[in-house]
Design a protein that fits this description.
CATH superfamily: Alpha/Beta hydrolase fold, catalytic domain
Structural class: alpha/beta
Number of strands: 8
Largest sheet: 8 strands, mixed
Pfam families: Abhydrolase_11
Strand order of the largest sheet: 1-2-4-3-5-6-7-8
InterPro entries: AB_hydrolase_fold, KANL3/Tex30_Abhydrolase, NSL3/Tex30
Order of helices and strands: HEEEHEHHEHEEHEH
CATH architecture: 3-Layer(aba) Sandwich
Protein name: KANL3/Tex30 alpha/beta hydrolase-like domain-containing protein
Low-confidence stretches: none
Helix content: 25-40%
Radius of gyration: 17 Å
Organism: Litchfieldella anticariensis (strain DSM 16096 / CECT 5854 / CIP 108499 / LMG 22089 / FP35)
Length: 228
């Protein structure tokens, strides 16, 4: 399957592909405005309502998502019990393998991205191996309550276009903190007003999580087309 998958994707095939020894790949949407290899966060896989809404909103805008699940999340699904993710370096290597699987000289390389931990793994891979671009949804700039422990040491190595989509109230890094970071010149941050880590706003804001996800998809589409 890995040998023929890029050709099938190049012909416009979509759906769910089972990759021997690696797991499932779900391809949504036509790649009219680019492809995004998308990893999930630590606590929920690609079947979460957040990931499905985001992927659907991107598909509506012509951004194709290639959604992968890390091996530990597949084991959670198979065994029916929770387990912590492995060390981040292992996730980076898994993501690199997926990137190789879906890449082909006849196609433009996919952008890398992910939710929270998945975005962190994508950023580490981009810093190590390079990338066409990065989409980071709810990036974990630091553990909650530990703003001094930033996860930015590798960011000076990011040479590609980067879009961070972040809720202004995210406990892993909100607007007040991020605006004081010295981020690479090709990095743009789109803030979702009143959103927290999963982009849920307070009722008093008059917004909904669905509306913020749709706003995020619009920002991702605009950023990817601007650098296509």
């Amino acid at each position: 399957m890995p040998e023929e998958l890029p050709e099938r994707l190049g012909r416009g095939e979509r759906g769910r592909f089972q990759i021997m020894g690696q797991g499932a790949l779900e391809v949504w949407g036509e790649a009219r405005h680019g492809r995004l290899l998308l990893a999930h966060g630590a606590g929920a896989g690609q079947d979460s309502s957040f990931m499905q809404r985001l992927r659907s909103a991107l598909a509506e805008r012509g951004v194709q998502t290639l959604a992968i699940e890390f091996a530990y999340m597949q084991r959670i699904r198979e065994e029916g019990r929770r387990r912590p993710p492995p060390k981040i370096d292992r996730l980076v290597d898994e993501l690199a393998t997926w990137c190789d699987i879906v890449s082909h000289p006849s196609m433009s390389p996919p952008w890398l991205g992910g939710k929270s931990m998945g975005g962190r793994a994508a950023s580490l891979l981009a810093a190590r191996d390079g990338a066409a671009g990065l989409i980071l949804c709810g990036y974990p700039f630091h553990p909650p309550g530990k703003s001094e422990n930033t996860r930015l040491a590798h960011w000076p190595l990011l040479a590609c276009p980067v879009l961070v989509v972040q809720g202004t109230r995210d406990p892993f890094g909100g607007r007040d903190e991020i605006e004081n970071y010295d981020l690479p010149s090709r990095t743009r941050v789109h803030f979702l007003e009143d959103g927290e880590h999963d982009w849920k706003p307070r009722k008093v804001s008059g917004r909904t999580q669905a509306s913020l996800i749709d706003e995020a998809a619009g920002a991702i589409y605009e950023h990817m087309t601007a650098h296509h």
